[in-house]
């Protein structure tokens, strides 16, 4: 053994004995793969540019009570235009919590949004449904909510859920609440919701309190978080402001995530689109923290580009992932939880394009640490189509990403130098107990095939699409633990009272 190798092995042994760690257990040397798209100088410059936008240009907030509160705490208000001084924005950032806890329907804490932790989940509000049996598109109805919610419940790498569809078969005035009811009934995981107004938000919140056992349990591990959007560029409508205030007052975690489109609702360059998106989400934070300092808030912005050949708001553009990554780094700089985007596609079906775009997005989201990552496997064709098959495929992609993000932990067991020494040159390791104890750490897929051609033929010559369909239909049979009958009756009574 050379002196250099001996020194390196001694260093590793010393670190293991001292319990030096970089992310996991004390007996491991662990490095989480990381990516950065902007450096500290750029972060500082984006922050200063954001403050300039909020202080010099400002945002439109047509809401009398919000304007009174903002004006009374230092903002310059002229009509509906609100200009926020830099100290006011930075004060809101300091007051907001650096971590947001979410729990499932039973009250168990399952998500801790902080630093660069990443959790994937499907998105919401699709208008069409792609049936995995027939591969035909139809309008999304309330029965599809039950199916997609239950599917999300059983997919282990979908860590949380959204309502996914629009329920075209119920009256529009109560559709958001019907969707919420079925999503909570058929999925135990934390759920992000949106609503048409504060009255709907209140009804959805009351359902959540019923299911999780009351306000005290909810506050310990919120089962719901609310999704809200400013209107790019730099504007709010009054109902959205109502909901920001309602969530702050009740400590319901709030996502404030605009959707600026470079060359459309934002300037054409990526850097300034990031600045605008950052300014839009932080403007909501200022009001939110004035209403209730320390209330849980999740920053975010769905930044993408206008495709000039089609004029679409692209869900598959690589620039979307780049700008989202930059905003995630800004949130980490502010010590704010972040609402990221990955696993979406501009493809019309669950095809090779969909898989390629979802894989690129999910890997970059995990490597940057994009927090609560939405759109995973539920948004096809520019966010208009929900596909159970795409959800299952993206769950597989996220599983592979999770394995990759574990890196190469170094322990005495994983280095296994004694095993190499015992077997020696020209041997094999198949019969070693170390192999038996560790081979299951390798990832095996239900969908991706690794067999040779003859084995594949013997197993039925099933294409990837056929295997994906079979696995999807099997997983769609899942239903979570049913709610107690008394609880269902109360939900029925609530629904009859909705107007």
Count of helical regions = 19
CATH topology of the domain at 93-405: TIM Barrel
> What do the pLDDT scores average to?
92
Indicate the percent of residues in helices: 40-55%
What is the global morphology? globular
CATH homolog superfamily of the domain at 93-405: Trimethylamine methyltransferase-like
Report how far the terminal alpha carbons are from each other: 79 Å
Please give the order of strands in the largest beta sheet. 6-17-16-14-12-11-10-9
Structural notes for this entry:
- 47% of the residues lie in helices and 11% in strands.
- It is of the alpha/beta class and 499 residues long.
- It has an eight-stranded parallel sheet. A three-stranded antiparallel sheet has the order 1-3-2. Strands 8-7-18 form a three-stranded mixed sheet, covered by helices on one side.
- Mean pLDDT is 92; it is low at 15-26.
Gist?
The protein is built from 19 helices and 18 strands. With 499 residues, it is α/β, with parallel strands linked by helices. The chain has a domain of 313 residues: TIM Barrel (Alpha-Beta Barrel), CATH 3.20.20.
Present the secondary structure layout:
Layout: H1 3-18, H2 40-57, E1 59-60, H3 64-72, E2 76-78, E3 81-83, H4 86-95, E4 100-103, E5 109-113, E6 118-120, E7 128-130, E8 137-139, H5 142-154, E9 161-162, H6 172-186, E10 191-193, H7 198-212, H8 215-220, E11 224-228, H9 238-250, E12 254-256, E13 261-262, H10 270-291, E14 297-300, E15 304-305, H11 318-334, E16 338-341, H12 352-368, E17 371-374, E18 385-386, H13 388-405, H14 412-415, H15 417-423, H16 433-438, H17 453-458, H18 464-475, H19 485-496
Parallel strand pairs: 6-17, 7-18, 9-10, 10-11, 11-12, 12-14, 13-15, 14-16, 16-17
Antiparallel strand pairs: 1-3, 2-3, 4-5, 7-8
Helix pairs in contact: 2-10, 4-10, 5-6, 6-7, 9-10, 10-11, 11-12, 12-13, 13-18
